[in-house]
């Protein structure tokens, strides 16, 4: 058969590589800033966009969707073309994909700094971005599938299975989790409430880790590790088993983020057992990668790229063993809400995603610039600084987590809590400082890489269209190599898409639908009433400032938590919470029952300067809440949207809402006035106080 | 003759284990879910032993010339095992319950299972030796002839990562070529495979156990009960039983120093570092909102005044600490700190 001549598109790969590096730097800087702010709270500068609550979503979104996201696209665009022996389906789609994604990231970062957030972790971007992400994801899918359909290679390599699985699962997760009703151009409310919202959100959140940080990177691993090591993949059958097992089991594990919460216990148990079953499929990926390096270990000593790959795979293995352990209820009782989770995810993010990306960048950029890496020595230095950075990052946090959790749970012989919350925070602040040092090391390694790669690029010549040739696909595809039953689906991309959708869909359907339909999962509490208009505004402020990044609203049924925060949280208390605000980390204390615990004046002073009420507090100051006014024009649509979502406000209440709001605001200002704290009733602080004073109170009305 | 011996010893073992499984079960314990599972496992394993045993025996039949050695080994092994099974049968006193089973029954059942697993492993081992010898002789006579070939250790067997040399690598090459990437088709390491099966087994058992495990609320209730008991024990011993009726003003400097520390971290935010009053009232003047006697102050701290923003501190401080605090507040009376808050409440000297 005559060979066809064509060329690979390297330009899009280059753009994605640059975007990956650039956003990576920004995302990591935001992370470092946030880490330092925990040690030096004044770093928030009394300026809303630089408070921890807004920096943290910027950091997480930037490193996940911008750094890793662009890393995925870089690797996929490079490897897919070569594995399919075809140029990307459409240069225009590639362009739309690239610029669309960057526009989403830039706009997303900007709006997150402005405080526009849905309040759902890792899905903070507001509804216009959710739609844009869906569209760009479809463009990516069309471009990828188009390329696959026009391939000159009969069978799809394992890397492509992972790309397809990723695409299908992310599309499903993103769309289901993003059901929301817009209030204004940049504000919406989740269509789900309370327990259901929590389940959907962590089904999404956990699988964002699975299908954005794991499966696409496993795909990249399957291409770049054998390429860089020049060794055959260790086991084909292993890749089949672990691919299908991984995507099937992963989707079920979301509820392990909600152990000991008000989530129905059967769902929690499913989360636990599927997490345990995930160990082997995850390790299958790690081991297949590491064993592929057999016969190349002598080169690992000199080759920085292989070193990065080895540590990346090892970190992947550690994180995927630790994760299931954290999903056991007795371990989770210690680890949850502490820095253990943060350490755990950073083993994955810094080690697995970061190091694999760096290895790929060092391998790929010199190739598309047809030159050699500027300095192998610098790359090795980067490797060692980065590794040290990871160690300095995670060990202090593990230590901090253990210390704090043990302190939380200690009682005196008289049966009193031994430590105030603040004491436990102040004990671990030195660990936070060490963590920031680790982050600085890691970041300096990245900067060294940027210099090294820039020098490499400057001395090379860019090959925008790399010539290639291959025979076209024959009409009848003959199985290559040894026969294997799995090669049936490797020849059929459409079936592969459909099968992966079914496989990832099962777990989601079986967990979500019962929670939505079975009433007994969320027992009704009659005294729980909808929020007042002022409290709704206060809640929006709470979400806007990212309070949920440091404060939970979910008291677990433990003796220490009940003693510290009050009666444990019940599922029925959250039925009007669109979105839920349970949080996942307690840098500050739980707020589920903060209502009525302190006088209004305490909250006033505390938001103005937290250290005045809680000496030693590391919470930032919120001076703008005392100047900015609540937007009254939003009250009627807010009531309407909430009613549409099922909150039982009487018909026509939207007309009366503003009057009610003013009345409640007047009451709060009057009480503040008594304590010589004059404030206008239309200020945001009044709404926030109203919300905080309401939290957790409804249930007490029954007693 | 040897075959008979093996058969007899296997039967002996079967009957013994069967006896062991029935004997520790009083009828009430038979209905226990844990017991049922353990018994099911025991029976399942017994069946496996039976099948394996007959396989081993027939394998031995084929290699009569080799039986003598391995046959005796097996007999000794089985006899040993059987002896152990008998040793398990000593009755022990019922003390604590494990999952609703008495300790004796639980450990007995578990050790029967362990024993059975040991038997299965030894049978498998024997079978492997027999079959392995045969296979090596038939298929790879050349390789066996290679002198100095290292013996495969149990660790390697567990790991079973093949294709270390170019020859065997060519054996398992799938013949794929994706942009220069080749794929071998090595087996998955047995430890990984069995680990996966174990995790699935764990999942099944966990979900099944979930039916009978205490709920979160029950866990909390039992933790609270245990804590209350501990606390009661402690209070009986300690001279700590102070309430608002029995409280006396303390004057010991150590008590007051301890109280001052508590005051500055907990009370100062609202009452000022010198008790001059900020959000909360002045504590140093002659005016009191809720009574100025030591008993009243103690009671105000202990129960709080919810509608005025004073929280109840009884869960944060011990009775002794409450007494220290109340005494400290009495001790700063009349200290006239700077910037005092205006008078609130009733004059009380």
Automatic annotation (TrEMBL), chain A:
Binding site for heme b 2; high-spin: 344
Transmembrane regions: 15-40, 60-80, 92-115, 127-149, 156-176, 202-224, 236-253, 273-293, 305-321, 341-363, 383-401, 432-451, 496-517
Localization of this protein: Cell membrane
Cofactor(s) this protein cannot do without: Cu(2+); heme b; heme
Cofactor note: Binds 1 copper ion per subunit, denoted as copper B.
UniProt-annotated binding residues for Cu cation: 206, 256-257
Name listed for the protein in its UniProt record: cytochrome-c oxidase
Lineage, opening ranks: Bacteria, Pseudomonadati, Bacteroidota, Chitinophagia, Chitinophagales
UniProtKB/TrEMBL annotation, chain B:
One Pfam family named in its UniProt record: Cytochrome_CBB3
Start and end residues of each Cytochrome c domain: 254-333
Organism whose genome encodes this protein: Chitinophaga oryziterrae
Keywords from the UniProt entry: Heme, Iron, Membrane, Metal-binding, Signal, Transmembrane, Transmembrane helix
Signal peptide per UniProt: 1-20
Record flagged with keyword Nucleus: no
Entry keyword annotation includes Phosphoprotein: no
Listed name of the protein: C-type cytochrome
InterPro entries named in the record: CcoP_N, CcoP_N_sf, Cyt_c-like_dom, Cyt_c-like_dom_sf, Cytochrome_c_Oxidase_Subunit
Transmembrane regions listed in the UniProt entry: 36-59, 71-87, 107-131
GO MF, one annotated term: heme binding
